[in-house]
Automatic annotation (TrEMBL):
Keyword Coiled coil: yes
A GO MF term: zinc ion binding
Biological source species: Aquimarina aggregata
Name of the protein in question: Molecular chaperone DnaK
Keywords for the protein's UniProt record, in alphabetical order: Coiled coil, Metal-binding, Zinc, Zinc-finger
SUPFAM superfamilies, per the entry: DnaK suppressor protein DksA, alpha-hairpin domain
Positions annotated as zinc finger (dksA C4-type): 98-122
Chain segments annotated as coiled-coil in the UniProt record: 18-45
Record Pfam families: zf-dskA_traR
Cited InterPro entries: DnaK_N (IPR037187), Znf_DskA_TraR (IPR000962)
Length: 127
């Protein structure tokens, strides 16, 4: 189906989208590194000499934080992967084409969600 699509974003439009994606990807990768360092950190907050109850509370809280950070890191990794795939679509000149309808995705949507592969129309059909 993609072969017979004649409508696509111009090279200059694609270049503009690429700048947006690269900027978002740099931030996303920095955020990912922060998350990774947060859940790899041993998290010893100096509670060794405090009451056992407080220490247990701290350890429970630390476990929850590590789990939350791990989940956030997994989501962030997926976001980075989606942005990389968007860059590939720019290279292939298929970026911004809805994979369901074959129509161009609204540029405002792409600015907000640069890794989108569905138009709002197609997304609503899924609901």
């Amino acid at each position: 189906m993609a072969e017979d699509i004649k409508v696509r974003y111009s090279d200059s439009d694609l270049e503009n989208f690429k700048k947006i994606i690269v900027k978002k990807m740099e931030k996303a990768q920095n955020d990912l590194e922060l998350l990774r360092s947060a859940y790899k950190n041993d998290g010893n907050n100096g509670t060794d000499d405090t009451s056992p109850t407080f220490k247990a509370f701290e350890e429970g809280s630390e476990t929850m934080s590590k789990e939350a950070n791990t989940q956030l890191a997994i989501r962030q990794e997926k976001f980075v992967r989606d942005l990389k795939n968007a860059l590939l679509r720019i290279e292939n000149k298929t970026y911004g084409i809805c994979r369901v309808t074959g129509k161009l995705i609204n540029p405002e949507r792409l600015k907000l969600v640069p890794h989108a592969t569905l138009s709002i129309e197609a997304k609503n059909m899924q609901s």
